[in-house]
UniProtKB/TrEMBL annotation:
One of its GO terms (cellular component) is plasma membrane. It is found in: Cell membrane. One of its GO terms (biological process) is response to other organism. This is Disease resistance R13L4/SHOC-2-like LRR domain-containing protein. SMART domains: LRR_TYP. Gene3D superfamilies: Ribonuclease Inhibitor. Keywords: Cell membrane, Leucine-rich repeat, Membrane, Repeat, Signal, Transmembrane, Transmembrane helix. InterPro entries: Leu-rich_rpt_typical-subtyp, LRR_dom_sf, LRR_R13L4/SHOC2-like, RLP29. The chain crosses the membrane at residues 475-495. Residues 1-28 form the signal peptide. Residues 128-386 form the Disease resistance R13L4/SHOC-2-like LRR domain. It comes from Linum tenue.
Length: 499
């Protein structure tokens, strides 16, 4: 009886558990649906995928991974219980639609591209696609961005990315300007050539434009300065030339501007001071000239300023550097600067990196630089700085090899301030005058004698000679003194000769 009752209770418990589980599965709603479009009125459980959408998805993927890929067998429910890595979906009016498609080896089980790829028309039939990206997909066989059909994705596409595709060649089609809701356009590390399409400046919703690492040439279109919502603009590592557009003053929302490693030229426009929200300004390795515009003082949010390797010229004295209180990185190496380093540079309390190397700076090194609490790298090598380095040993020990001062022939460091382990590379110790030499020798000699346990008194007679009070033999004591002095003289001569 007890056995039968136990069996009945066990079966009853299992039935209840299974019922609760099935109820939760049938009534549950996938997380993607909860975050989906507001037009979705029913749950995700049991919702079908629109048949034309599924066929378009499978065909579009086949064009990139190869015809041997059989999506209908491998992923009969790509938006449900057999999801595809790199594919995201949402429900619209009770049916599943693709909203994100990522092709390329981002993850181990991502969709990898085959040896021959093609953009099939079905790709542009995904009517709710918001994000489309290709990573390391076009490698061996040259492929161009298709010039047509982008308008079909215009109402929905917000993100378009081509990253690290050396086989992606040709020009950027002007039809990309039909993507009127695009917020992010990233074409980085590809083989794209030609000029930058001016009509990209018509994409009023664009917040990120990254075209770095290609072979684009020509000028930066003036229309790019009309993108008032732009947050990130990166055109670095191309072959762009000409001046900065004067319209760039209209990029008032811009946070990061990177135009480094091009062939841009001309003066730094004064309108650059309008970019009050800018945190990064990187113009390295170009051909800018005409000095540092005073309007740079207006970049009060700036954290990184990198202008190195430009023939800018001028000096540092024309700017009130203390106004850039958020500055963390200041790299003005190899820009042809002359004159003194102003005291206001030493007021940048958040500064961590200061690069002023390979210029024509003169005068003494500001000792106040050692008071900057965050400074961890200071490069002043290759200038005409003079005098002695009045930095404490603690500061020199903190920087070590991140302090560069070599290539300043008339710069030296005081031996008494810097320990040998913290001596700056390539900088000679300061030379001592004749009186200082004698004092130093006597000081060192006295110091050595006082360390000896048998010495009871070391003094000086009227003639300036050393008198040994008690150390066995007076004659040996006197010889010992002169031997120590001789060693000290040899050391000083050798040290001075090696510098």
């Amino acid at each position: 009886m007890r056995s039968a009752l136990f069996s009945f209770n066990t079966r009853h418990f299992l039935v209840v558990v299974c019922t609760l589980y099935l109820t939760s599965c049938c009534n549950g709603e996938p997380a993607s649906v909860a975050a989906g479009d507001s037009s979705s009125n029913d749950g995700g459980g049991g919702a079908p995928m629109e048949s034309g959408e599924k066929a378009a998805l499978f065909s579009a993927i086949q064009g990139f991974v190869g015809n041997l890929w059989n999506g209908s067998d491998l992923y009969p429910d790509p938006c449900g219980w057999t999801p595809i890595q790199g594919v995201s979906c949402d429900i619209f009016n009770g049916l599943w639609y693709v909203t994100e498609l990522s092709i390329g080896p981002v993850h181990d089980n991502s969709l990898g591209c085959g040896p021959k790829v093609e953009f099939r028309p079905q790709l542009f039939q995904l009517k709710h696609l918001k994000s489309l990206s290709f990573f390391n997909c076009f490698i061996k066989h040259p492929v161009s961005i298709p010039p047509n059909n982008w308008g079909n994705l215009g109402p929905t596409l917000q993100v378009l990315e081509f990253r690290s595709n050396p086989g992606l060649t040709g020009q950027v089609p002007t039809s990309l300007a039909s993507l009127v809701n695009l917020q992010s356009l990233v074409l980085i590390e590809n083989g794209l050539t030609g000029g930058l399409p001016a009509n990209i400046g018509n994409l009023a919703n664009l917040k990120r434009l990254v075209l770095a690492g290609n072979r684009f040439n020509g000028r930066i279109p003036e229309s790019y300065g009309l993108l008032s919502k732009m947050l990130i603009l990166d055109l670095s590592r191309n072959q762009l030339s000409g001046p900065l557009p004067s319209t760039f003053g209209g990029l008032t929302s811009l946070l990061k501007l990177d135009l480094s490693n091009n062939q841009l030229q001309g003066n730094l426009p004064s309108v650059i001071g309008n970019l009050k929200n800018l945190t990064l300004l990187d113009l390295r390795n170009n051909k800018f000239s005409g000095g540092l515009t005073k309007s740079l003082e207006g970049l009060t949010s700036l954290e990184e300023m990198a202008l190195s390797s430009n023939p800018i010229g001028g000096d540092l004295m024309g700017l009130q550097w203390h106004k850039l209180q958020n500055l963390v990185v200041l790299d003005l190496s190899n820009v042809g600067l002359a004159g003194l380093v102003p005291n206001s540079v030493a007021e940048l309390k958040r500064l961590r990196f200061l690069g002023l190397s390979d210029n024509n700076l003169t005068g003494k090194l500001l000792p106040e630089l050692a008071t900057l609490p965050c400074l961890s790298a200071l490069y002043l090598n290759g200038n005409n700085l003079t005098g002695d380095i009045q930095f404490p040993d603690v500061f020199m020990g903190k920087l070590r090899r991140r302090f560069g001062a070599w290539g300043n022939p008339n710069l030296c460091y005081p031996l008494e301030m810097v320990s040998p382990s913290n001596a700056p590379y390539g900088v000679k110790p300061c030379q001592l005058g004749e009186e200082e030499d004698v004092k130093l020798l006597k000081l060192n000699a006295n110091s050595k004698w006082e360390k000896r346990g048998n010495i009871t008194n070391v003094g000086q007679n009227d003639s300036g000679g050393f008198i040994m009070a008690s150390w066995g033999s007076p004659s040996l004591a006197i010889c010992g003194v002169w031997w120590v002095l001789l060693v000290e003289i040899v050391v000083v001569v050798l040290c001075s000769g090696s510098c």
